[in-house]
């Protein structure tokens, strides 16, 4: 089928699935922790009702505050359109791994600015932490993607993720896969980097930045983070070679299991996390050429 | 060389008096010997001129002698008397040691000059024998400035240096052009006057002519 | 027409000269405006001349007086045209900026000398780029250095003088090294031109070439701001008036880069692997060190200065990779890395000049360079803050702006050259890749800090609360042009890259499709814009825009004020913590009891001291050593005349003895 239709359908699928993924993760986590848990499709209703709520805007904000949700959700939409996650040929070939890293950085930048614009200490703290994490995870991201690109022979995401490269294409890719998992956890504000369900401001990173948003803006930001999580889970699934629904279900379960067994790390121990991820990625890349 | 004996006599006098200057400790005798050595140099110049045929050099030599042998010592002696300087000069060496040092310096100057390429090309210079001697005299004058502690004898040392340079030019070129000669000698005269004035000031300020006291900068 | 175009170059230089002369006319603002106007004209002419040379590479513009051996011929070849274009553009915009800007600073700066010096500075840089012989080059270089020294001292404050003296020492050490290098290569014949030098260098022995390379590296590297010769940059750039900082950081560093590449590409024979690894190593060091200090700095303009050091380090890394590739025989990597370096240099010139011009406006508004006193300026100067935001995003190398594509080309070409055949090359490239990625991430941090603390949230001081001096039309316009150029250069990256390739590489330029990857910046830009637009439309459809209320921020019900928001120090604290071994921040906490009876009630003072490890462990010990040696040598200054005479005597004897 033609490229535009494939991209369009892919975008719709991801947009539709995203809240379900978040809901599934929460539901699995609840069940694993012995609670009944809300139904996985409750997230749809939450988003719709949040959209209708009143938008309370801080009086200390500037024009950046209003731009942030649009840009962040726009970039999430961009991700869902351009990555070949549903159809193998469904990506846009001109978007390659460096553009992906740059666009992800752009979305982090806007989120951080939104957090700082509220003139509260919580927003500042979350922004400072998020920016540190984003800055320190960038070399790992680039090296991991470069590893996959070296195996695929091209740097276009179309060729990397849509080509049928799996973890077993090359033994060193196992290391890179682990590094990629660590990156996904950091980018999506999951354990052990951040707790997405906390209500204690001093333990927030991502949540602190969206603390100031309410109503439609909050819905947009929540939706954007769901889309990002879905996109990354589907990328991981592609690399393992699983289909769409399997990835969604098994991936959510795996994430929930992981989050239930491990504790969140202290922020000031983040350098250990980052170093482990970096050295795994570096080892993966170097081993590609040695083995 | 009809006047060669005359020239030789003048040369010997010149060297002897310069070396004696090096060792003298009293101002009047120092000035007298300096005057005598300048006269000897002038005589040497006249002798060489007569040999070489430059008769016009004779009045120049006479004028030079007048300046160096008469005017300069007079000026210095006047200044020394006016400032009430002690006529006994101070030196780092005792007279006997200074004889040895003087002769040693003179000898090393001669040996250095003997190695110079200028001396090797014998055919270019008028009086080859004078060249090493003049270089020796230059060094003697320089060392005299170092050894002597007070201002006036340092000035005399400088004048001896001048003499040596004049002798050098005499030997290498057969005399310096008149204008330069007069320039040099007027510099010598004015230098002598200036140094005498300076020494008077130093005497007024410090009560002594010893230059080792002049080692601190004032505001 | 050809006569006109032939004289474009000469006219441009002439107008710069006139601008300088005109500035000295008198005290009134008329002369200031006139001189800046002449500088504007010179800039336009310069841009026309460069475009002419770039677009028709066979033409070469030159002028020279009668072909006497001693008078240099000035010639604009395509390589020089790239940099001449930069100089003309930035001087044009800074002249536009200076007309209203300096008018508000009439008491602080002596306008006549300032404008005359600016014209001299620009003239010096123009001369450097068009010169074809070492003599002309050094003439222009020295003019540039001396003029910029006086420019740094413009406001005659104590710290400016100190900064300027440090700058003077470093720049003259560099100029001396350059002079020695040129003389060594020319074997004493100073009036040779670059072609003759190249011929001489081709047959020179290896040790001379190595020494010359080291001297040129020191000379150009110290002017460009490479670590460890960079110590003058963070002092001098903040001290100068802002449009001068823009000229210095934007173009003067590029002129140093021009000189370095002129020597390496056109004069010296291909340097080997060791020399290129040397360049690569220092480039990486500068990039890392620069970005770390940019992140933790709290002075607005010092952050920008350190960011310049980082970008220059990045450019030198790209050059190091290029020459390393050349030595290993990888022609494709060599060409693309070289083109990427020059493209990134152009992009840096544009956004850094814009940032410094913007900094002038911000510093004037808040009356301070301290980031901790700014804040909330986006509400007071909204249009300006949008332009500044664009520049900050460009400086952070984010898509779709120009520096991102420079790095993109570089990363792509490195990626294509990972191979299992040559393991050594692959390891070097991988390590470079990793460090540059880290530097990129931290650069984003630094720029976000800069923008957020100065523009967003509540004002942190009284001066920032009520800004009286808003940006005027000319100032805003020049900064906006630079912001648009940063975006435009990114969108037109493929065209520009092929232009650069044609002008720099002697052989045919490589395709700018690196392997199977094609660069299409406009697609990415429109796609991003499209997605944001779609989201905007959907939001309008699915929710009511009128349903909103303005209220306090989330404050847990407590009355919070501006002192409780995050400061620049706080924002960069995690980086300061994670890199504490490199940064060596000194933190002192002094607790003083207030009441004698109760030791638990104390006033606490916390001081966070940022140290420069290069000064502490490098320059200060070196300085102390040199001064110690000088103290020892000073002992022969006893004041005793006879001792000096003795020394003269000994020297005389020694000289004669040696000569004979």
Automatic annotation (TrEMBL), chain C:
Q: So which domain of life are we looking at?
A: Bacteria
**What stretches pass through the bilayer?**
6-26, 38-59, 79-99, 111-129, 165-191, 197-220, 277-296, 303-325, 337-363, 383-403, 423-456, 476-503, 523-542, 641-659
* GO process terms (BP): ATP synthesis coupled electron transport
Membrane-related topology note = Multi-pass membrane protein
**What's a single GO CC term here?**
plasma membrane
Pfam family of the protein (one): Proton_antipo_M
Instruction: Give a yes or no for keyword Cell membrane in this entry.
Output: yes
Domain NADH:quinone oxidoreductase/Mrp antiporter transmembrane: where?
134-430
Membrane found in the keyword field: yes
Q: Which UniProt keywords apply?
A: Cell membrane, Membrane, Oxidoreductase, Transmembrane, Transmembrane helix
Localization (cell): Cell membrane; Membrane
What's a Gene Ontology MF term here? NADH dehydrogenase (ubiquinone) activity
InterPro entries assigned: ComplexI-like_HydComp, NADH_UbQ_OxRdtase, ND/Mrp_TM
Stated name of the protein: NADH:quinone oxidoreductase/Mrp antiporter transmembrane domain-containing protein
Q: Which organism is it from?
A: Candidatus Uhrbacteria bacterium CG10_big_fil_rev_8_21_14_0_10_48_16
